[in-house]
């Protein structure tokens, strides 16, 4: 039984020059996840369900739990002193931690504190997604653009937490993808999935079909072909779409499948955010042996221009990808 804390410390020993900051940062994310989990588990009993009343930087209605999760991350990461700042789906601007120790940290983090927030009020899966990059400016001079606006392929680590029938934290470094399940009795994340590899194909096809008539002909054909009953091939494909990208991609990592959120006539770049949704999920999926593109190009090669920019996303088992 290896805990998340023990495992990150063990990993540290593999690198003689490591300072322990990445391990510390991953443990801080784990702590924030436990605090959010504690709220989620009694969501129907305390006053945290429903809309908060404001509209976020994305123009979307903010749920109370979105705000709570964001505040938990801001507090935990600031006091962990293992990152120099954070970008969040819920904050318009970059948050730089300006105390001396944080500002000397090697890493910055980009987060969607609560993914799938439309699922909260109906007690369905929700998640957290995070991306960690190494800052490139000198210590004490953290820069909003240089440090945070880096290509996805520069990620040092990325992960997600799924608040599902159990709560899991999954993270990837270039070495592998590791999954930990929260034991609520002891309050520890224990390693449950030591090496996650995505099957090369699978049964799951995750797409919000209501957009079928607004997507371009190429993607329409991709969807049509997937569901054509061909003996011995895709006859048993299931349409799965939970409204929580983290949950759908998690299922595909376990069983094989594809998730797509394409661009459409009214939203050519789709909905999902590059920096803290698509990049981290693409990094994890690639390390697990899968693929992630915007329909043409690799997600991890996109040069970002804005912290909150969107991109179409096709992600999952290699043999199921759009060509
Ligand atoms: P959120 O981060 O505001 O919750 O939005 C992201 C979510 C994804 O988890 C999910 O796949 C998608 O939005 C659902 O959107 P749609 O209703 O357009 O299919
Ligand atoms: Mg999201």
UniProtKB/TrEMBL annotation:
Pfam families: FBPase, FBPase_C. Its main location: cytoplasm. Substrate binds at residues 241, 271. Pathway: Carbohydrate biosynthesis. The keyword Mitochondrion does not apply. It is an enzyme of class 3 (hydrolase). Keywords: Carbohydrate metabolism, Cytoplasm, Hydrolase, Magnesium, Metal-binding. Its cofactor is Mg(2+). Mg(2+) 2 binds at residues 112, 115, 277. One of its GO terms (cellular component) is cytosol. Residues 198-321 form the Fructose-1-6-bisphosphatase class 1 C-terminal domain. Residues 2-193 form the Fructose-1-6-bisphosphatase class I N-terminal domain. The keyword Oxidoreductase does not apply. Its EC number is 3.1.3.11. Belongs to the FBPase class 1 family. This is Fructose-1,6-bisphosphatase class 1. It comes from Haoranjiania flava. The lineage of its organism: Bacteria, Pseudomonadati, Bacteroidota, Chitinophagia, Chitinophagales.
